What does this fold into?
Amino acid sequence: MSFENLGLSAELLRAVADEGYRLPTPVQTLAIPAILDGRDIMARAQTGTGKTAGFALPLLQRLSKESRRPARRAVRTLILTPTRELAVQVRESVKTYGRYLSLRSAVVFGGVGFRPQAEALRSGVEILVATPGRLLDHVSQRTVDLSQVEILVLDEADRMLDMGFIHDIRKILKELPQTRQNLLFSATLSPEIQELARVLLNSPERIEVSDTTNAAADISQVVHPVDRGRKTALLSFLVGSRDFRQVLVFTRTKRGADRLVRDLHRDGIRAGAIHSDKSQGARLRALADFKRGSFRVLVATDIAARGLDIDQLSHVVNYELPHVPQDYVHRIGRTGRAGNKGDAISLVSADEREQLQAIERLLKRTIPKLVINGFEPVPERHAAPTKERTWGRKPAPRPGGRGRGPSPNWSPRGENRSRRRPASRRRDRES
It folds into this structure.
């Protein structure tokens, strides 16, 4: 089936052709006709399956063809997303597909100035893309009116629930008219999502395409076993020896992302980082510079796993495996998009064995292992012991002690940190 068979207008078909799209994806084939018919949708679709176009194209057509139009430009479609990055990407898609239509759109999210967003809303927009928290700020300041919303879209609904937005979503629903079309898109259909759908949707059309295992099956995946302390050296070697031009690298922590960028710079590889401690402006600049090719490596935390859309991104590297197996699928879904080939590389140390096994159970397949010459991991029986934090547990007793663990004045070198407690502390102890 082609886009022409889905009932789209000439203006939208022209925009789709401009982007080089010829055949719709499965989620687009199923969702577009149902949305054009005005039905509610509950769709399970992984990232990278074309779901944004699946709801953007038909809602643009409905708004442009609808005879009942407010005299003043009012918000007629509201699209809620969990992250700033995803909000920006969705708004860009709306602008791209609606370039030949006279519909205005805007995006609002936190971390940037409030006033420019308020001015854009006052000038009148028909399509609003927003994160829940910042949207409620505009509602409380009365800079946005949601009373004429005709179509509500919840994009990445499971991620919004994971991030604790359910209370914000309920507040937003109270601001909307009772009669409207509702579209819910989610990577998973957990019991919480199904409960939200029961309250939100009216006799929905249920669409399920590309489960987690199939979404990852089209991407070439490999695991490189390596000692934790040599991961950075191996990453630098891979980027340099294989001449990676664009590679997205995932770490678990914000501090780890910044540290990795510094280490890569020392190895002569230009890199940037995006994570939640960065201002929104800094994150957008880093993403734009990466897309332009100003640097080769973009290091990100999982905040970017569902919010980045980078055309023809060839490589994703898991510098550290995620704790949640599903996040692995979202990470590697940044590559291999729109029918393009993609490679996912994981640098796995011995202490990540359980995470790797959980990912393979989810995928129902074994990921090939390939040791890189010169980076062979040290056998565990010969490896130096690693020092672990003991938060929430009693420290192990010192040899020859009475089982109470090291005293506060003991240091690894056997030197006292303080020769004598203050008198006040001695009195407290004695009393």
Q: What stands out?
A: The chain is about 40% helix and 15% strand. Confidence is low (pLDDT under 50) at residues 386-431.
